[in-house]
Design a protein that fits this description.
Blueprint (H helix, E strand, L loop, with lengths): L1 E6 L2 E4 L4 E9 L6 E8 L2 E9 L5 E3 L7 E6 L4 E6 L8 E8 L14 E2 L3 E6 L1
Parallel strand pairs: 2-11
Antiparallel strand pairs: 1-3, 3-8, 4-5, 4-9, 5-6, 7-8, 9-10, 9-11
């Protein structure tokens, strides 16, 4: 089992920045892929995914250049740095992880572990 706990959400004005953190615990040694997705109501969209073995990343077009995923392996923490935030970025943000192999084609919202989410609200 892998446990993910997000933090760092909040309310920010348009153009501002936030850093989301995801504390990883449990059987983290077997994690291959990690990522972030966001959800508004029932609609979710994968924002970014990371192959922890190769370091390969892929971003949703609308956040590319504004959002950056990173890891602190020593602290077992995943980050999402978000800049130039827009009201359209308002959503609940989730950290995700997967231990399966060869699933690069999947979106981060399809991974088999996720946290409880953290709310991000961007005001105009």
């Amino acid at each position: 089992q892998v446990h993910l706990v997000e933090s760092g959400g909040g309310s920010v004005q348009a153009g501002g920045s936030l850093r989301l953190s995801c504390a990883v615990s449990g059987d983290s040694r077997n994690i291959r892929y990690m990522g972030w997705f966001r959800q508004v109501g029932r609609d979710g969209e994968g924002l970014v995914k990371l192959d922890t073995l190769s370091g390969r990343t892929e971003y949703l077009a609308s956040v590319k250049g504004r959002f950056t995923i990173s890891r602190d392996n020593a602290e077992n923490t995943l980050f999402l740095d978000m800049t130039n935030l827009k009201p359209a970025d308002t959503a609940t943000y989730f950290c995700t992880a997967d231990t399966r192999r060869n699933i690069w084609a999947l979106s981060s919202w399809e991974y088999n572990y996720r946290g409880q989410g953290t709310q991000v609200t961007v005001t105009s």
